[in-house]
Design a protein that fits this description.
By secondary structure, the protein is an all-beta fold. 2% of the residues lie in helices and 51% in strands. It has a single domain (4-276), classed as TolB, C-terminal domain (Neuraminidase, 6 Propeller).
């Protein structure tokens, strides 16, 4: 399984890959440069939407626009004009925090968490942004809010707080957005690199991106067994998402921020968007924001 470069563009801190099945494009963000990216494998067109502030995640809305978790809170982003309409900021009183990673759930709500700019432990929280634009805190004392995924039956939610080196599972009620019965289902060896973004395949297996790990791994959350490791030509692997017409291509984001000149010389592709085509496994369709 060999990763290919999707296009000759490198992000400072690429993250948040999500496949837009209606348009046949892969979308991702550059957190530090405050950009939403989208790329069409068919037309090879690459579009960059600047949002003029740091961005932690962007998801697809049912009207085709984006909903983003930004430095200054939640906001809609017009896909054509790039105009940002800020809606709510649950951490306006914590200027040292920013959003980091988020996804739409099977309930049509937007789930996203925060972290300290300086990586101070347990300074962040995990929120759900409702279709009525309400914001509810779901998890407190989060250090670096990262990967999330829902099981195909929508009864289990998986979540990564990076410095814990674990994947936690919660019982999940998509009607009420309640999380309950937290337990650890995967312990990540530190030598694998820090667990970052995450997705799930149609077999219920979890795919995890590893920061400073040079790899993507596949795990069985029922047995805690690591099933596969795929090495990549960059150390700071940040997220993964299935895409393509049959959801059989795995798109992978990476980062170059914080690397020394020597490290960049060793990994000149750091910050690239990669793809492993026809990976042999199939993803689950993503969710859109809206009721």
């Amino acid at each position: 399984m060999k990763a290919e470069i999707v296009l000759p563009h490198q992000c400072m801190l690429g993250e948040g890959s999500v496949w837009d099945s209606k348009r046949g494009v892969i979308c991702w963000i550059d957190i530090l440069n405050g950009e939403i990216h989208e790329y069409s494998p068919e037309s090879e067109k690459h579009k960059i939407i600047p949002v003029n502030q740091m961005i932690g995640a962007a998801v697809i809305c049912r009207d085709g626009n984006f909903l983003a978790a930004l430095k200054n809170g939640f906001g809609f982003v017009n896909r054509e004009t790039g105009d940002v309409n800020m809606l709510a900021n649950p951490e306006s009183h914590i200027p040292g925090n920013r959003f980091n990673d988020g996804k739409c759930g099977p309930d049509g709500r937007f789930w996203a968490g925060t972290m300290s700019h300086t990586d101070e432990p347990e300074k962040g929280s995990f929120y759900v942004f409702g279709t009525d634009h309400s914001v509810t805190k779901k998890i407190s004392n989060v250090s670096i809010s990262n990967g999330m995924a829902w099981r195909a039956d929508h009864k289990i939610f998986y979540y990564i707080d990076t410095p814990t080196f674990t994947v936690a599972a919660y019982d999940y009620d998509k009607n009420t957005a309640e999380l309950d019965n937290k337990r650890v289902v995967i312990n990540i060896p530190e030598e694998d690199g820090s667990p970052d973004g995450m997705t799930i395949d149609s077999d219920g297996m979890l795919w995890i991106a590893h920061w400073d790990g040079w790899q993507i791994t596949r795990w069985d959350p029922d047995t805690e067994k690591k099933l596969m490791s795929i090495r990549l030509p960059a150390a700071r692997i940040t997220s993964c998402a299935f895409g393509g017409d049959d959801l059989e291509d795995l798109y992978i984001t990476s980062a170059r921020t914080g690397l020394t000149n020597d490290q960049l010389a060793e990994q000149p592709l750091a910050g690239s968007l990669f793809v492993i085509k026809n990976i042999g496994y199939k993803g689950l369709p993503g969710f859109e924001f809206g009721s």
